[in-house]
Amino acid sequence: MFQFLNRVLTEAPQSRVHASSFAHRCALRQAKRIVVKLGSAVVTRGDECGLALGRLASIVEQVAMLQNHGREMMIVTSGAVAFGKQRLRHEILLSQSVRQALQSGHNQPKDMSVPALEARACAAAGQSGLMALYEAMFSQYSTCTAQVLVTNLDFHDDEKRQNLHSTLQELLRMNIVPIINTNDAVVPPPEHNSDLHGVISIKDNDSLAARLAVEMKADLLIALSDVEGLYNNPPGTDDAKLIDIFYPGDQHSITFGTKSRVGLGGMEAKVCFKLSNMLKTSKPQFSSEWVKAALWALQGGTSVVIANGTNPKVTGHVITDIVEGKKLGTFFSETKPAGPSVEEQTEMARSSGRILASLQAEKRSEIICRLADLLTEKTEEILAANKLDLEVASSSGRLPSAMLKRLSLSVAKINSLSIGLRQIATSAQNSAGRVLRRTRVAHNLELEQITVPIGVVLVIFEARPDCLPQVSALAIASGNALLLKGGKEAANTNHVLLQLTQEALSMHGLREAVQMVSTREEVEGLCRLDKMIDLIIPRGSFQLVQDIKRAAKGIPVLGHSEGVCHVYVDADASADKVIGIVRDSKCEYPAACNAMETLLIHRDILRTPLFDQIIDMLRTERVRIHAGPRFASYLTFSPSEAKSLRTEYNDLECCVEVVDSMQEAVEHIHKYGSSHTDVIITENAKTAEQFLQQLDSACVFWNASSRFADGYRFGLGAEVGISTARIHARGPVGIEGLLTTKWVLRGDGHTVADFSEQGTQTYLHESLPLEQKEILQRDSS
Amino acid sequence: MFQFLNRVLTEAPQSRVHASSFAHRCALRQAKRIVVKLGSAVVTRGDECGLALGRLASIVEQVAMLQNHGREMMIVTSGAVAFGKQRLRHEILLSQSVRQALQSGHNQPKDMSVPALEARACAAAGQSGLMALYEAMFSQYSTCTAQVLVTNLDFHDDEKRQNLHSTLQELLRMNIVPIINTNDAVVPPPEHNSDLHGVISIKDNDSLAARLAVEMKADLLIALSDVEGLYNNPPGTDDAKLIDIFYPGDQHSITFGTKSRVGLGGMEAKVCFKLSNMLKTSKPQFSSEWVKAALWALQGGTSVVIANGTNPKVTGHVITDIVEGKKLGTFFSETKPAGPSVEEQTEMARSSGRILASLQAEKRSEIICRLADLLTEKTEEILAANKLDLEVASSSGRLPSAMLKRLSLSVAKINSLSIGLRQIATSAQNSAGRVLRRTRVAHNLELEQITVPIGVVLVIFEARPDCLPQVSALAIASGNALLLKGGKEAANTNHVLLQLTQEALSMHGLREAVQMVSTREEVEGLCRLDKMIDLIIPRGSFQLVQDIKRAAKGIPVLGHSEGVCHVYVDADASADKVIGIVRDSKCEYPAACNAMETLLIHRDILRTPLFDQIIDMLRTERVRIHAGPRFASYLTFSPSEAKSLRTEYNDLECCVEVVDSMQEAVEHIHKYGSSHTDVIITENAKTAEQFLQQLDSACVFWNASSRFADGYRFGLGAEVGISTARIHARGPVGIEGLLTTKWVLRGDGHTVADFSEQGTQTYLHESLPLEQKEILQRDSS
């Protein structure tokens, strides 16, 4: 038996982290021969019996593209009945009205209702039109199609089966897409009490597609219908979750696979019995049909993905997405996925995180100190893993040298990392559980607002492996559960560092509070877990932050959007300070988000030696200057004009523009800036204070380099990141970025009705001191 | 001349608030005869010369649907060239290879490149196929089509023009969709140096569509191409913005309209000259072509919308959206839009808001006090407007009585509103500009973190007009600019209240800081202004909050998602407190988000009289009980089983479930709750503290009703809303929900390089007291 998935998975290198459900999906990229089954719900348009043309066209587009890229595609389609019904309805209406006109001669209102149409007649009438449509559509992609009509009975006759096989084989060899449909004209009539819709369902070609896929040794059968896939519980109930990978062997009492096969009939019956609970509320007949078909195909060696082909958001790319290994629908696999899925990891992290949050602050500090110890104890092990990563990176030659530098660890780096962790451990005493506000609402009714962890935080970081223990320590200190996704270039180092972190956590039985997801798991997929992840923190390039902001749907992202930082040189600026601050802001580390991108110069400076000094300094530092339109107009020979005044160069380049006044500088920054960090250089305190006051950027500086916008330099201790958002945390964010608050109200049977006009109570709303309570709380915990 | 838009706008009742660009759009809903022009970019697939089938199919679907709903639809299409090329290429390849085989007989590698194809030949070859495709597609919607081939020259011959007119008129009368294309076979050949693509562009049927639309007196011409519309500046430059409504009369030196018409040729030339700057960077020839065509049609009395038909996100509904009045592309209108657009309102609000934020706190308080005065001074005026609203509401009979109650104002209500505003005025002294943290970073380098307003806040509220002055006062107190969108049921009252608010603001020249957008402006459209609005606060029903959360893309929304609140009755609960708190939590105001939805009862209670007391009380209060599965299993005759344990009933209904312990209650709440407000009733302090500690809801209460979760009851003063988000503000949110922070760093020429290993400076990071600075700041401001 051809076991496509087993083969691919066996050949694949073992992933370091548990994510083999992801590995399963990735295996699909290697599927060569693919059967796409279009259920009637995909082909037809809801209740109206026409075809869903747009849907069909985009499916044809995907199939044609995959075919043109060397895959062998087959389509099993429904829809002839619908197409035929549409056509016959016209004919019947026409003949009816003619008949009526002949018979009655009266001008009576005509009965324009269409009689029930026999499904098989509809199918026969629709077949030619449907094929013509497919052909016209595929011809747009220079793809040839062939019509194949079969019945399930054809598979029972060995000769017919072999003939069919060789026909299809020959078509595939000639690069032709076979379009297969049931030969409805020769099958038994539909059940008596079924309406036309029921007929489509019953005649749905699940089993045909399965048989065909197995017969043709297809690697993959993609079955598209109007359900999302298989659920672990009846869809719509509290606990219903879409199953990502369905491994039939998970069902007890069923042995399944190559070694101990059971009869297909029996297997079907048993599995379907087990599944019956899962399918309780979805259309029963339809569902069990497709599950049966999927299991059949699976046992025959064809992997199956069942997905929704009617969701307008994904229809345009559902097939290509599945073939690219994206998590869509339910994947029926003959191989058991090892390790937890990312959803399971998130759930484990949350429940461990809740225990972590309820630990005393001292115990959380203990864990961090233990991690700090482990880092120094296991330095050699860490460096060995890091060496491996560095070797891979330099041999591939794909990483730029700056990246290599960030990837590389040293004894000194690990030591300072360890020292940093101990500082975080100290600050942990004063993060979660802090009382921010105490109010006596009424007699014996006291309200407290206290800091609490946010919940489950996903941190996505690139290259720098030292990020892992740092972020872990911040999360532990604040009582948050953590999902980590590191760059694959640091996979070995991250693996060791994660083990140490989990070892430290295990001293309080909480190793699952910090989890690492596969480096290959798609960010997009993680961003979809909006009910499970409370905050995403991307730490890395601007591109990374942008990508994540775009992908995150419903999950807040803490990160800076852009860093178009300005330095404004006022008329009253001191020359020394200007040269020092401009050089530092632009050249100290031009790739940083807090580096200067635009230099605004007061018009009066233009005529002074200071102007030449600035330009000379920038030239010496090899900074490429782009002139703003105003600046360009002052010069006879200006440098290249800035394409946009809103550019983040991230390099030794900057824009220079001229303004008339501090006020104009503020307006310029409001218009073109990104509200990150902006600087004024002046000796005039009044001008400076106005600038600081009027500008609504996250960081506004007077006579200081923009590069100070940084958590460490601000004295926040460890930095969670820099935020340009206007809510939650703004600017450099310390550990408080990982905290939220909760309100605790302690009463004595108080009700709101007591405070009504007829009630006995009145609101006091007295502010209470915070300190006293902190002691009380420590006692009670 | 038929002036469709003028007619509609003249008939429409004047909107109270300025939003006539919106009224323009709404007028489109009444367009009956519509020409849809499909540019070649829409019909063909990028560089490959096939048709964009999916796109075409969904356009056909929209046109057919509009036709079936009684509109008269015409399509002007491109694409025959592409279709024909696809077809001829096959033929040529085939004949080439046959020829080569005959000529050479060798097995040499064949030159399979296709010679340049003559566009007109392609068009002729493609026409039949294209029409067949349209026909097949439209037949899916039981819609008949007719092929009409014309040339621009046909319009110059009066007889031909009249023949064409009556043909099309007859087709429309018979409910047939005419599909019109240029008769390429008889037009002059394309320019010599143009490639096939260029040919398509030059032959693009903009002018044909415009002539046809005017000839047929169409109300609307929808021109779909691959550009978004007309920009005020070259697209891609810093200031480029898509023009929503383009009124050619805005161009100086051009008078345009029915009264003083100028020759079309001259008008075209002048407008195009004026427009040339706008179009600098987009494809010049194409752009000026479509602008010319649009202006032509406009002058002929047909409104024009130019939009992108190739954007996959909207293609499926671009035509229906435009016809429904949604803001898509550029609308060429012969009527000048009065009043600012919502984008302009937002910009005005932001710039006034910036001045408001820089006012001294005392001055912001002054404005609020003035508003409080105005409310009492103008009470009669307010009540008169309110009476109008109430009359409309009760006569329509559509508002439920609870809604009517919220809508209605009284002298008492206005007085207490006024008192509330004075309280907000007092608190304004201590909101924006508060110093939260002061750090001496280094010698002479001092850092401050201060509270600042968020920026532009959009508040969407229903029914309750008293919300308007309240929210305005909160925004003014915190220095935020405000966009308000009230319910249309309170339009008159809101109008008066807005005028008073703006009058108060005008004492410091800031009336534009609070703006009201049209009641009819779509929330969806507002939610798209993600670069202009910083925070959205929906105040109203759960449905409203949900809708806005779904629509808001990239703008944070402050609001509660769901309120599935629990009351847990512990084994050690006091019976009196249980009855009081459960009654209050469920019955005091069941529609509130902080009302109890699930009652969790410790198993031990089941056997006690307290259990019967609880059930009796709920029965007396007519609360319908739904049994959780565990509870149901204990009863012989149980009430209806709860469909889901995660239900927010929002009514006199609740779920009752049994748990074994406090621990299990916490787990239940974590699993099914919405982290809003959860209560424990117990006399055991240890159990209570554990519950309060372990539960991660926004509000956790001990022996107090869940209904206390409210900004006023918490003593926060005015309430911005309730948040179930985990970042920014959580639980009942006071004015601090409208504040963010900024970092102010004051130095003396400090650079980061000074602090490097080679540098002269070291970080001090000393915490400084806050009070001293507050005095200093007051001096400097």
Condensed summary:
The structure is a homodimer of 781-residue chains. By secondary structure, chain A is α/β, with parallel strands linked by helices.
Q: What topology does this entry show?
A:
2 copies of one chain form a homodimer.
Chain A (H helix, E strand, L loop, with lengths): L3 H8 L8 H8 L5 E6 L1 H4 E2 L2 E4 L1 H16 L3 E6 L2 H24 L15 H21 L5 E6 L7 H16 L3 E6 L13 H7 L3 H10 L4 E6 L19 E2 L17 H12 L8 H16 L3 E6 L9 H6 L6 E3 L9 H17 L2 H17 L1 H18 L4 H7 L3 H18 L6 E8 L2 E9 L2 E6 L5 H12 L2 E5 L5 H15 L8 E3 L6 H5 L7 E5 L2 H10 L13 E5 L5 H13 L8 E7 L6 H12 L3 E4 L1 H6 L18 E7 L2 H11 L4 E5 L3 H10 L4 E6 L6 H4 L6 E3 L7 E3 L5 E12 L15 E2 L3 H10 L1
Parallel strand pairs in A: 1-4, 1-7, 4-6, 5-6, 7-9, 8-10, 13-14, 13-16, 14-15, 17-18, 17-21, 18-20, 19-20, 21-22
Antiparallel strand pairs in A: 2-3, 9-10, 11-12, 11-26, 12-25, 23-24
Helix pairs in contact in A: 5-6, 9-11, 10-11, 14-17, 14-18, 14-19, 15-19, 17-18, 22-23
Keywords (chains A, B): Amino-acid biosynthesis, ATP-binding, Kinase, Mitochondrion, Multifunctional enzyme, NADP, Nucleotide-binding, Oxidoreductase, Proline biosynthesis, Transferase
Protein name (chains A, B): Delta-1-pyrroline-5-carboxylate synthase
Main location (chains A, B): mitochondrion
Explain this structure:
Two copies of one chain form a homodimer. Chain A is α/β, with parallel strands linked by helices. Helices cover 43% and strands 18% of the residues of chain A. Chain A contains 28 helices and 26 strands. In chain A, helix 14 packs antiparallel against helix 18 and helix 17 packs parallel to helix 18. The longest helix of chain A is centred in the first third of the chain and has 24 residues. The first copy, chain A, starts with a helix and ends with a helix. The C terminus of chain A is likely disordered. At the A-B interface, helix 4, helix 5, helix 6, helix 13 and strand 12 of A face helix 4, helix 5, helix 6, helix 13 and strand 10 of B. Strand 22 of chain A pairs parallel with strand 23 of chain B.
